Amino acid sequence: MAINEKAAPVAGRAASGRTFDDVIIAEIPKNSREVYRITRRDFKGYPLVDVRIWFDDATTDELRPGKGVSIKLEALPEIVAALSGLIEGGRL
């Protein structure tokens, strides 16, 4: 089954027991077994953007979260500007 055909739960319970709901903004293929998933969520009242690699777990045939980062929504414009500067400056 291809990665884009699989569905992973986007609402769940955090390890701490607090609940959160993820809204998938985008999924960008990384390779045949992984995708970059960008989600929007709230955690402890803070709006966050999560950029994380999700991988194909061969034992369960489901996508599982891997390494990533959660960014406070207020910091997102500065991060986007820095990344855009890489593209515009031809540093890629």
UniProtKB/TrEMBL annotation:
One of its GO terms (molecular function) is DNA binding. One of its GO terms (biological process) is regulation of DNA-templated transcription. Residues 33-80 form the Transcriptional coactivator p15 (PC4) C-terminal domain. This is Transcriptional coactivator p15/PC4 family protein. It comes from Candidatus Accumulibacter proximus.
